[in-house]
Amino acid sequence: MSPRALLLVNHHSRQGQTRCLEAIHCLETLGFHVIEQSTEHPQNLGETIHHYRDDVDLVIVGGGDGTLNAAVDAIVDTQLPLGILPMGTANDLARTLGIPASIPEACKLIAAGNLRRIDLGCVNNKYFFNVASLGLSVKITQRLTKEVKRRWGIFAYAATALRVIWESRPFSAEICMNGQSILVKTVQIAIGNGRYYGGGMAVVHDATIDDQRLDLYSMEIEHWWQILLLLPAMRQGRHIHWSNVRALHGQEIEIYTRKPRPINTDGEITTYTPASFRVIPRAIAVFVPPA
């Protein structure tokens, strides 16, 4: 009997409209029975997954990190295996898991059937795959419109980041973890579950998505130009060794600010401080390349 796959494609993702038919053809050639339910509103993905939960054997999501984030709550609830077809701008989760950018190759990977259970982060009861952050990254998210990402692709992150960095101002926060309370003045706090975020930057050089920990860094600089010096190290996650970057890790973290500040999870603003973070070990199963 052919495996039944629910294929969800975000037509607003950078490659969604053009790659959907290619994905269906590849999956059917590989022996899948495909139920395709494309959407222009990612917030509806959870409802669709719940509707088909008893009619399919797996869920395949075509889109970027924001699309995957919109589906994650339903994946946790149903415990259906997750296949990923990278069709977004950054595709940081796919990069973390080693999933190829080629749609035919990503489909073959799903057909090979190699599953790996991965952790999820959770902030204020909202799950995330990659990173939750406040500060600079939120402002970048607010500036990155769909039109900009569609037109400029991965380069949109760099151009927008440079503009936001120039305008950056520190804010005060309290970080509580491992029985400690730490007061900081920072331009960005990022809490990572996976390794990559923001178009290929690494939270920490040795982070994995199944290490059952959250990795935090706080960028405590005084002048905007200091961020530019950090950027090359951030590509490899080596910025944590710099004197003006605080690095911590644990399973539970709380962050407080004087006034509510928005929090970005996997590229979407979903909650505000005060924020309670925790790691959910081995939360879902994802199709990945062989070890």
UniProtKB/TrEMBL annotation:
Instruction: Extract the Gene3D superfamilies matched here.
Output: 2.60.200.40, Probable inorganic polyphosphate/atp-NAD kinase, domain 1 (3.40.50.10330)
> What keywords is this UniProt entry annotated with?
ATP-binding, Kinase, Lipid biosynthesis, Lipid metabolism, Magnesium, Metal-binding, Nucleotide-binding, Phospholipid biosynthesis, Phospholipid metabolism, Transferase
Q: Which GO terms describe its molecular function?
A: ATP binding; ATP-dependent diacylglycerol kinase activity; metal ion binding
DAGKc domain location, by residue? 1-127
User: So which cofactors does this thing need?
Assistant: Mg(2+)
* GO BP term, example: phospholipid biosynthetic process
The cross-references to InterPro entries, in alphabetical order and at most eight, read:
ATP-NAD_kinase_N, Diacylglycerol/lipid_kinase, Diacylglycerol_kinase_cat_dom, Lipid_Phosphate_FormReg, NAD/diacylglycerol_kinase_sf, YegS/DAGK_C
Checking Pfam families in the record gives: DAGK_cat (PF00781), YegS_C (PF19279)
Q: What are the record's GO terms for cellular component?
A: plasma membrane
Residue ranges of coiled coil = none
Instruction: Describe the family membership recorded for this protein in Swiss-Prot or TrEMBL.
Output: Belongs to the diacylglycerol/lipid kinase family.
Entries under PANTHER family matching the protein: LIPID KINASE YEGS, SPHINGOSINE KINASE
User: Sorted alphabetically, which NCBIfam families does this protein's record hold?
Assistant: PRK13057.1 (NF009604), YegS/Rv2252/BmrU family lipid kinase (TIGR00147)
Q: Any idea what this protein is called?
A: Diacylglycerol kinase, catalytic region
